[in-house]
Protein 1
Amino acid sequence: MSHREPTVVGVPNFNAAEDAATLRAAMKGFGTDEQVIIDILTSRSNQQRQAIAQVFTHEYGRDLIEDLKSELGGHFEDVIVALMRPAEEYLCKELHHCMEGMGTDEETLVEILCTRTKPEIAAIVDAYEMMYDRPLAEHMCSETSGDFRRLLTLIVTSAHKGARDEEAGVDAERAREAAQALYDAGEAKWGTDEEVFNKILAHESFAQLRQIFEEYKNISGRTIEQAIKAEIDGELKDALSAIVECVESAPAWFASRLRRAMQGLGTNDRTLIRIVVSRSEIDLGAIKREYERLYDKTLESEIRGETSGDYKRALVALLGPA
């Protein structure tokens, strides 16, 4: 059940030197040609963008991100700069930002850490320590608390082992045992043992969890979602629910997160940009479909209604053809 459906796949006859020259020309002299920047950077894959940046420095002795920042502004700049960073570095910057300053943005922690596969988390963990010279787990421990902190810490500390397990495939017998353990820790007893939920949902691969949730339904007669909503509350409930929903369908979870970012007073632009950029090479095509199925509106029409100018043009370009 793979939902890999990118909207950005890169261009076949890629020429980094040509793109670098076109971008340099678009930023030189009077005024900037924003459309050229949009056309190139929203259609190249992240790997291709990194190659362009390398050539740019090599040819012109300049930093492409710095040049873009000095020419662009507002949310448009945010989109373009996000596109230019290697995927895991961009997510590390977002994690760092949501933990810095006053209060922590728990929703963003959940969005980044509870919805990604073990190999993706492992890459984030490595990049974070390299960029900030402190382990992600340690930074998170200082910014969160209780069962929520324990869950996130388990996710981050078990990522490398989990990435190795992922190759092993699904173990049906172990799935049954885990499902029984979840049942015993929740519905079957007075009060819930969050520790068991945390351990299983943080350690197992998405494929293994899918099997565990099937078994859980057989044992309990209700879904693991129903159990979590009934037994657990607060931030931990949101975090565990995100894992469960992403195991069932990550595109549906991201569609609902986008919906929340655009509903109500003002748009949460940071979330909107992060999801569109970070899922564009994974499953944004599927997210678009889910969005329309769930809300009876196209994601493109909603984004057009919430944004304007070059910012709008860049996001819509990343959404790919309607």
Protein 2
Amino acid sequence: MTTSAHLDASPAAVMPGDEIRIPLELRNSGNIVEAYGFEVVGPAADWTVVEPPTLSLYPDTAGTVHLVVRPPRDSTIPPGELAYAVRVRPQEQPEHTTVPEGVLDIGAYADFGAELNPRLSQGRTGARFQLAFDNRGNHPLTISLSAKDQSDALRFTLPSTATVVGPGQAAFVRVPVRARRRMWRGMPTPHPFQVTAAPAEDGVAPAVLDGTLLHRPILSATALRALLAVVALLAALAVIWFTLLRPAVRSAAKEAVKGPVQAAESKAAEAKDAADRAAAGGGGAGGSGKPSTGPSAGASPGTGPAPQAQANLFSTRLTAEAGTGASKSATYTVPDGKVLRLTDLVLENAQGDAGTVTFSVGGKPLLAPALENFREQDFHWASALLAGPKQEITITLSCRTIGHPPATPTPTTCSSSALLSGTL
């Protein structure tokens, strides 16, 4: 053989995303000038090059080229030893091709992410949250969960075993959160909490995720008003029964039995007179009298309270659209001489946009939730929000990222709506 090639037999250590240079020594033991070409074979061929790509050697001389190895930071490249080879092909005498072999020692790296979805949820007893884990490293991660809230008002249901996430994979874990005590009435109360996702591997920082449970009362303002209306109706029915229907029923019953009772009393009186005459040995025929009937008492119905005047119901919808990085507003102005009592507000984010929507009354911002935290969110106030004559109710949409609803064309602007309800 006129060509010899040599690679170091010991494994060459390299981390994904880094670069190493491995020398390849060549010797031309022939008697002609030879030019050599190189071809890397094996899994490392996609991210390994030879510098220089060709080499010419005079007879009985040696030279060196370098393999530049750049494994990408990709989860598809597992850690451990990886064999490779280089095909050294002489151009003048290709039959003397040689293939030296070597070994790479690919290092392990961790790249871990976690997200809590949604960050804000609401419920009368609790709500369900979901943790999403993303392992962008090249080896499996074992993740343990813990959760806490500062006021110790919440109870968390966490998995009893750790979650294992493979390289390049995602995992989802449901985390039900419940309030320790029931709230029957009052204003919704926010309870912030934190969930910690800690990988078992040393050197990987845990992810601390913030969330909030908005604890709503079991009896909302609407349900309480309905309950009071039912109680008032039952009370009115009770008053009607005891003041009108019950006396009328008693009077009708008395009138129904009055005739038979009088007839029985008349027959009893006649029988007594006959018995008295028979005992006395005779007697004149007694006259029989008819009992007189007294006037019957009639019940006159009472007069109930006059119905109250119904308030004018109010409902309107505001929609704001804005491009990426822009802000747009939609406004409703209360008519002159009118007062708007706002009791219900529903915010909509149908496209799944990212940004903020600010709700203002009379130029004063009251709410500014992040769009990415909801698709539909409702607010109800037992004490209505008041807007006076000519005051403006405004929603301002600040678009950061336009959403992409599934199975629909990609929208060109962010879009958010608000449904306002109350009385005017």
Protein 3
Amino acid sequence: MSIEVVNESGVAVDESLIVSVARYALDRMRVSPAVELAITAVTLEAMSELHERWMEEPGPTDVMAFPMDDIVEDTRRPDAPDIGPALLGDVILCPAFAKDQAVQAGHTLADELHLLTVHGVLHLLGYDHHEPEEEREMFGLQNRLLHDWRTERADAAAREAQRRIDEKVLGTVGLDTDEPGR
């Protein structure tokens, strides 16, 4: 799975976490590992242009998604030949717009960008929120994916912290502890 992040926004963005949350969502949604996803962070002006051109709505927005190919693994026949890399689509984020939303929601800009990344990925996968039932389904899934991703990251950080403590206490720094007898 190839996920490319380009930051043209002028706002500092932790690209590795954007890739991590996007990859997590795609994996959990059982999307083919052959996908390519492009995520671009843009300025308010660039987002305004995209929003007006493609949605015919004035001003900027927080996230836009432009799907390309339908390659969700569950929709392929089991005897179909392996497909090569295919472009799932583009997710466009606007950190400057997202800042105010983060403040209103009471969380960090990074948290808001993670939410918007998952939101954009779900749009690429065909989810929408025009109708109340669609909104409940999409936002519920979005919240579960974010919660599970955050939980897994926190668990991994706790395990790593414990590993470092163990190494210090046991004096095993630099030893390969996977070998039998150690």
